[in-house]
Amino acid sequence: MNYKSTSSSYKKLFGILLFVFFITNVFFQIIIYGKNNYNNIFLNSFFKIFWINSPIFWFSSFGLIFKLLIQTSVITISFYIYFKIINLKIKAKDLFPIIGLSHFIFYIQMFLEFVYFKINNSSKFFISKFSLFSIDYFSQIYNRNYPNYLNYLFTTINIFELFFIIFFIYILKKITNSNYIFSFFAVMYSYILPLIIWLALMTYISLPE
Prior knowledge:
Layout: H1 8-33, H2 35-47, H3 55-58, H4 61-85, H5 92-102, H6 105-119, H7 135-141, H8 151-156, H9 159-176, H10 180-206
Helix pairs in contact: 1-2, 1-4, 1-5, 4-5, 4-10, 9-10
């Protein structure tokens, strides 16, 4: 099975979207916190780049870009290993921008969450574990309580995660010249299964002693 090498236009588009993501995120933070407070956040996040326990960094523009690149790299490696196993010669450098572009579905989620928090006059947007259209979101609407150790699981599982999977199955079909069944199983073994294992691990770690 052959694949279509991603053109430089995909890579340029990924770079452009990274820049737009950074700038708009700065804009969101200035609106949420105000210009003076944002300057403090900027300085704090800059000097706490290697402080992984700092929520200020991970929810700053730098942190979100850094997290996006890490997630894209990890998923790229996962897919590359899977394609190696099934003997499909596909370059990691071609997978990376496609996976990165697919991640911008979560940027739409962030934008909608920003609008949601502005409508509700909340200033906790960038330090909140809130996830729009997640199990946690609907449980709050319908006043359903659940154990705290399920918080990470219920905020991760959301409609945008489903959109990401569907979009990536579609784009993978195009670049591998395959069918939807092949693309589905590639995403299943390279993304969905590792995600399930990760969620199970995080839930186990969160269990009360």
